[in-house]
Structures are given as structure tokens and as C-alpha cells.
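Extended Data, panel c. Modelled sequence:
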Amino acid sequence: MRLQLALNVDDLNTAIDFYTKLFGVAPAKVKPGYANWAIENPPLKLVIFEGAGSHGTINHLGVETDTADEVVAADRRLRAAGLNTTGIDETQCCFAEKTETWVDGVDGHKWEFYVKHGDVEQFVNVSLGRNLLGGATDGGNACCPS
């Protein structure tokens, strides 16, 4: 597993240059208005969104898991602790096909637990209609900024 930090930036190219220098690795994926890094040391999934919110603010936070079973286990643990989740959904979002669940933090930050299955060309959230544990199947997980 690794922690995910998704940030809003004003200029994609400037941010790519900075974060590449900061972590010493090039982005794993660059698309219009979007880039991400799969950094091994420290274990971090860094995602940036151009023009998606106030400069330098957090877009969302997350935990990237290795398997869908870990996402299901996280969802069950969160629900057992009394937190409301979106349920486990199969989606295409942010140029990836994923199994994911979301929970709202007390500070308003959205948290995502997810596993990436593969790359796609879809940026805007599309639910594949296969919610595994209940919850929204209408794109309610909304991983991508509007």
C-alpha cells in the first residue's frame, strides 16, 4: 500500500518539473491537466490536477492498495467503525479503471481507498455499475475534480 496525495496546481508543466526534481523520478502518467507519480521511496502516489481548485490545495487523499480484496476490507472496516462510505464501486476515472470506495473526512477532505486495474482514456468518473457492497452506482464516487 501507499498513501495518495492529490493536489490542485495552477500550471501543470511547472508542477511536473518541480515534483520530478523533488522526488527524483518522472511522472508515471501525464495527460492534459493531469499527472501522477508512483514514488517508491517514500511510498507515495502523487497526483496533480491543473486548474481544479485553489492553487496548492488538497484535491483529495487516498490509499492505493495492491488488491480489490484490500479495498473491500477497508470499506468493511470503515463501515464497522460507523463511517459512511460510498460502497465498493468499479469505475473508470482519472485515466484508470479502479475498484474504489470513498469516505468524507471530518475536515471536508475526501478519502479514497482504491486499486488500479489498468489505464484508460477516461478522465471524468464513469461507474461501471458493479457496486460490490452497496452504495452509489451512478458515478457518486466522483474521484475527478469538476
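The chain has two domains: 2-60, 65-127. This feature is highlighted in the accompanying rendering.
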